[in-house]
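Worked Example 4.2. Consider the chain below.
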Amino acid sequence: MLTRILTTLGIEAGMTSHTERVVSALGGFLAILLIFHISLFFLGAEGMLLIVPSMGASAVLLFAVPHGALSQPWNVLGGHVISAVIGVSCALLIPDPFIAASLAVGLAIGAMYYLRCIHPPGGATALAAVIGGEATWSLGYQFVLTPVLLNALVITLVAVLFNNLFKWRRYPAWLAKRGKLPPADTESASVGPIRHEDLVVALSEIDSFIDVSENDLLRIYEIATGQAEQRHLAPADIRHGHYYSNNAFGDEWSVRQVVDESPHELPEQDMVVYTVAAGPDRHKSGTITRSEFAHWARHEVCPDGEHWKRIMTPGNTAEP
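Applying the procedure from the previous section yields the following structure tokens:
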């Protein structure tokens, strides 16, 4: 029940280390400290309070999700500058502040879409240009250059320098592609669809917040490969005392252990008793035919601390 509630609320298990979280917080602190001083210099205390929240949102993306598509330099620079131009234009040309503010945000979203620089904080920049008060209005289009462009350049530069101090972080994201990739594991590559337990290990090794849910990653992979419904174990593969996973998504993922069996020559009477070892229905049990269990199971697994490893065949070696 708790798992279902957390999934419904969009709360997923955190795979990042405490080090990664502290690094993200430190990076945001340093970047915003500089943004504060720059905004204070050009806008004064009153105007500074409206532009800083926009850059604060950018800091979350650049330091907590540095590898994300919305965090890349063009998204940051283009998103803020284009939104600022639209916001200033709406403030100057539309007398009604409510219409001007609403239109500024809407147009900014559309422009960022077409120019391929979607950056959510850009919407706040467009809004700030309209409702920023006299300190902002008096700047006119100068607002686009100082403080918006200047602030965007500063936070992007800090992100480049800071994130690349740590070997598991690369910013911009294309820098990660320049590194030498490890040789492909042809045995693992031919295994088939990735599983829940594979993602748990992979995400923990990446040790960075990935701005996509596990369910979406699995669904994209399954759709792309077309293998979701092609892999099942044979009834003869189902053995007493062993664990099996169904390779499902999210709260439908489950691991069962065969705890008893009643072999019979007739398939409809060849029964197994199982208990759910992991998943939403943990500790529940059931009885089905061996053929039905084999159709449900996708692969054999074994416990590995808090996670599960796939048992590869041939050779009975465990794959993390």
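The radius of gyration is 26 Å. Confidence is low (pLDDT under 50) at residues 180-191, 314-320. Compare this with Example 4.1 before moving on.
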